[in-house]
Please model this.
Amino acid sequence: MDIKINLADGVPLYRQIVNQVRYMVASGVLEAGEELPPIRTLALQLKVTPNTIVKAYGELEAAGVVRKRHGSGTFVSDAGPSRLATRERRRIIEERIDALLAEARHLGISLDELFKSIQRRHALLAENTPADKASGEE
Amino acid sequence: MRGPVVAMLWEWWRITCRQVLFFGIIALAAGWAIFARSGPDPRAAFAAFMLLVSLAPAGAVAAWSRNPFAGYPLPLAFSRPVSTRLLVGVPMAYMAFICAAIYAVPAIVLRVGFGAPLPVAPVAALLAAAMAFFCASNWFTRNKVKRLLATIALLIAGGPVLRWMGPWHVANGRLVPPPLQVDSVQLGPEHYALLVLAAVGAWAATVKGVEAQRHGDDVAEQGRSTSAAPGRAAQKGMVEHFRDAVDAVIRIPCPTSSPLAAELWIEVRSRGLPVIAMGLVVALLAPAALALATKGGLMVLLSFAVLAVFIPFLSGVSTSFWNRASSLRAPMSAFEATRPMGTARLAAVQIGVAVAAILGAWALIATAVALSLPLYDGAGAAPLWRALAGRPAAQVAGVVVLGVAAFATVIALLATVRALGAIYGTRLWLGALAVVAYAIGLAFAVATDVVSEAAIGAHLWAVAVAIPIGTGYVSVRAVAARVLRAGQLLAIAVAWIALAGVAAFVARGMGAAIEALAPAVAALTWSAALLPLSAAVVAPWAYSRMRHV
Amino acid sequence: MTNVVEVQGLSRQFGTTKALDAVDFRATEGLVHGLVGVNGAGKTTLIKHLLGLLRPTSGTVRVLGLDPVRDPVNVLRRVGYLSEQREMPEWMRIDELLRYTQAYYPSWDMRYARELLDTFGLDAKKKVGGLSQGMRAQTGLVLAVAHRPQVLILDEPSSGLDAVVRQDILDAIVRTVADEGRTVIFSSHLLDEVERMSDRVTMIHQGKIALDGMRDDVCGAHHVTQLRFAERLDRLPPLDGVLTASGGARSWSVVHAGPVERLRDAAGSVGGEISESRNATLEEIFVARVGRGAPRAEAA
Model:
């Protein structure tokens, strides 16, 4: 599992792991029923204390993203992946939108200007990458 | 390995095995040599006996001579799950055992092989007990002063044991030892019980002391044990203490005019002045010691003499050539080795300051003793002055110059041996020990007329030839390696010639003639006269080997 | 969860210097505890008390419920220790050293020890004196973990080591905790390491506990916030909870303890507003609290 943690992020390490797992579930990198690495393995890989992984897995379980199975491992829950994914995707985008709005306010850019910029950039992007739109990546 | 006790015994054996085996074999060989010649002669037996008895503790102690830790010698063991009682008891028992064994095994072999009248069990028990006390006196505290006092007390207590051996007497101007029999030393069961009790008492006292070391109680008095190893922080020896004391009184800023001046400053400050301060302290004790001697007798005088001679000497020699090694990897600390100064000059300054400091300390002590003599026997030093006044001043001056030169040679050679020891380690020490043991054996053999004069003659010739050859070889190597410039070598040679001139002058004045000596001795005397030159050449070379490993 | 280490009111004096002053420290089972502090703050002194290598001047120390000074054998048997100097007999070979250490610990696992030697690539026939710094640390680590101690105590385990050997040390910490929930206590200068590897962080400064709490709580309680002011300021006025400040004119960056809202109110009262805020890293907290620009009094 390709997770990276960044100490300088200001976000607690377990939260970073939770976010990245949610992202991977939402984008389909992790499929329903797939097993997450054991705590020990992930702790060794990321060079963090195992209790951080325990906390992260715990929060993921509480949020219904993963499920523990009788001590034999942690698995992505199969509770309606598309529903989960959609909710997750929306959450991620909304976070980015919040950040964009805050930045725009600081820079003194109005909402209208922002919409126009988004449309302009979208058109540019559509021109340059016609074929990739169908691959289903974010 | 089964259990901590076995592990500890194994560890101690591994640390001491070379010295134990070495001394044991030397003891056996020397005894064999003596008895092979003279059979079970009681006089020869006594020589052998004294040899064995002195080699045994020497062997046990030699194993620890290079241990840098004060107090308990293996503080690494403090973090192991062993009780302090075992930590002290097992090694103490081990040391006592090997000390007794170095004596007992050769003694038994000689007794069986030659019928030599060597007492075994009682002496072994005494040696074991003595070793146990010696360990106790050195392990119970890290404080150097306390340890020194304990060792001295032990030596003083050991005196009566020697007297127990029997009547010594003087005949034909030689000290004749008592004849040795198997039962010369007798210990009844109550004596054995007393020894065991005393040893157990020593063990218990040591456990208390080591407990304090283990739990850092004594670190409080020594100062903070920072990132250094547990025992090393407390290694602030007497010289360091005196250095700090001197610093509190005199503080001369370092001269920046030349490297030589600066080097002299650091040597004088770190070694020269502290040693002289130590000499001053001992000198101040002289009146008290002499006053006590009239009551306490020979022992007090002897102890004071030992202190007076050895404290300045050991301190002057120890810090410079021993603790300079910063780590176990480099024989010379980087701080010293990277100073932009020629090795020869560095060596000269170090040795020169050491010599001056020790002689200065001794001079202070001698003056104090001379001034306090009236306290001892009323006559004072008057007879001494009279004897000196009888000689011409030039003679006296010449003798003084020769004395200083001889002493400087000794110190330089000691520095050389230490420097080489730092590089070659155990090999050199074993070699040196072998030579010393051989010499001791030879001396005993001669003293008991076991070996004829001719053998000695051969040895003397060998040494007499070796010295000039060795000196020549090292000179060539030193100049080739640019340790000594040709000019410096020339200066040394010229100085030596001047010294030789003084020696000849003094010898003629004293009426001694070299021609009258036996050829072997004469050859050795000529060679020995070369020693100052040898030392002056060999010391820088050894330093250079240490500096550029 | 039980406390494997309980230190209460521990004070230790060396002559006139007070190395530790009424220190309270608890280590909970199954967690990794990080000790941070500047050189000479008292980390090694505290650790030595846990091993019985120092006796408290006042206060109590209990490791696994036992007093390490009065019961050294039972405590030390269950503790693995790697000292800062990695003191080991120089003359022993590594395989001899393993056998020798095995004799002291009934729970020694020789197979595991040999596995570790292989993993680290150590030659068992080499003498300890001939090892490099990194190899010494690895050997010392093997000795400390091979008997599967209940508590693993590491004093500056990464000091002087290259990145490769450092990974080995961190792996050992992870393994110890992940397997059967044993406890690790380690002191370090490398704050990024402490931040990743600790569950609980304790900061010692001048012999006193400056900070003690779960890592996420500690980092979450401190923030680095960017402030923007309407007017140019030569100096930032003292604001509630602010530990250090840097910047100039209208833009300032502060490290502060306490919730961001509190700073917002305080800054608002002097005409400033918050533009960005994030959790502080352990290094930023450390420098703010005990660095040279740190406030003298204890901030909340």
In short: Chains A and B do not touch (no CB pair under 8 Å). The two ends of chain A are 18 Å apart (CA to CA). Confidence is low (pLDDT under 50) at residues 133-138 of chain A.
